[in-house]
Write a sequence for this structure.
């Protein structure tokens, strides 16, 4: 299996779209997740991440320039007990609400499909971390159109039990720039998680995202013994 460094993987494309990273720290003590957004249009770039309790939401940086909040404003991160949900759209709320009614992560996402932003039909990518008694497992999902055909939705879920220390999985929406944008293909990629504190990892991810296209970044470390979470948010718009 190919294992990439964060720097090499993020520098491999100028435009990943939105991306989710989930893994376990090198010492095995923390669950780690990161979520970033990139943008090409003024509307997409006109955003910031804002913490709201243990959740995180997107917000227009300049309300006067927001032309269409559809698919732009949502909660990328919500917490349900010992589960942390991270997604690239309002399916965060779907997963939260349906899992609260005893449905599984996969069952909840079966009620959704890719975004209605023709001709791109942007994939919906989602992740969930479950931690208990010092252990963690996680899952990732992608809902995408079949070869760009909006009449057919392909659904893939990847589950990781007892993940390896110092490794993460990375999934993103696009395989680069284009018109229409080419959707992500294949399994989540495997990344090396360096043995560093949250500020250093935040800097590493942010500095290796394309300078022109990056918009915002969220990083969270969850202590697997205590459940305590430490969070960092970086916004290009200030």
């Amino acid at each position: 299996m190919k294992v990439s460094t964060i720097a090499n993987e993020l520098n491999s494309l100028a435009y990943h779209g939105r991306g989710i990273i989930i893994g376990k720290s090198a010492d095995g003590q923390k669950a780690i997740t990161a979520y970033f957004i990139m943008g090409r249009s003024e509307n997409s770039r006109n955003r910031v991440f804002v913490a709201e309790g243990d959740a995180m939401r997107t917000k227009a940086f300049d309300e006067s320039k927001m032309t269409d909040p559809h698919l732009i404003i949502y909660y990328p991160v919500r917490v349900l007990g010992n589960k942390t949900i991270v997604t690239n759209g309002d399916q965060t709320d779907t997963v939260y609400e349906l899992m609260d009614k005893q449905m599984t992560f996969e069952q909840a996402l079966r009620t959704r499909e890719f975004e209605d932003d023709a001709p791109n039909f942007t994939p919906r990518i989602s992740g969930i971390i479950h931690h208990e008694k010092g252990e963690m497992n996680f899952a990732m999902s992608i809902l995408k159109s079949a070869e760009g055909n909006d009449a057919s939705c392909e659904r893939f879920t990847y589950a990781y039990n007892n993940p390896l220390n110092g490794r993460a999985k990375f999934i993103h929406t696009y395989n680069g720039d284009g018109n229409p944008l080419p959707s992500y293909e294949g399994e989540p990629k495997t990344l090396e998680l360096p043995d560093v504190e949250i500020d250093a990892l935040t800097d590493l991810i942010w500095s290796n995202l394309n300078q022109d296209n990056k918009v915002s970044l969220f990083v969270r470390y969850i202590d697997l013994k205590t459940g305590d979470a430490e969070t960092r948010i970086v916004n290009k718009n200030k």
In short: The chain is about 15% helix and 40% strand. The two ends are 40 Å apart (CA to CA). The chain has a mean pLDDT of 97. The first helix runs from residue 6 to 10.
